[in-house]
Design brief:
The protein is built from five helices and no strands. With 110 residues, it is mainly α. Helix 4 runs antiparallel to helix 5. It is elongated, with a radius of gyration of 15 Å. The N and C termini lie far apart (46 Å). The mean pLDDT is 93.
Length: 110
């Protein structure tokens, strides 16, 4: 069995690189964005780096200001990061958008 050895700081540096690259991508409310921002939310949980939460919050706030799309199953993929933001900030806007997605999935999605 191969043993992988690396320093904790090296792992954190790689996570940081991933987060920064992700937040520089021009993505919209769709499946790829949901998956990518899930990664940023999990990077924040794993490292405790508050900057990641701030980057996520800034990007989600920007997308909300640009306007919410019509919901599809794919546009609901960002629900995880909305719940994370709500849990950490208490900002009702994130919860309302997440509930709107949930309502769509429960009552309107094919």
């Amino acid at each position: 069995m191969i043993r992988l050895r690396c320093e904790k700081q090296e792992i954190f540096d790689r996570i940081d690189c991933m987060v920064r690259k992700t937040t520089q991508m021009d993505m919209t409310w769709d499946w790829p964005c949901g998956v990518a921002y899930y990664g940023v939310a999990e990077a924040w949980r794993a490292t405790g780096n508050g900057e990641y939460l701030a980057l996520l919050r800034g990007r989600i706030d920007e997308l909300i200001q640009l306007g919410l799309p019509d919901w599809t199953v794919n546009t609901c993929a960002m629900g995880h990061c909305l719940i994370t933001l709500y849990e950490e900030t208490g900002e009702e806007t994130y919860w309302k958008v997440a509930l709107s997605k949930l309502n769509y999935l429960r009552n309107h999605a094919l």
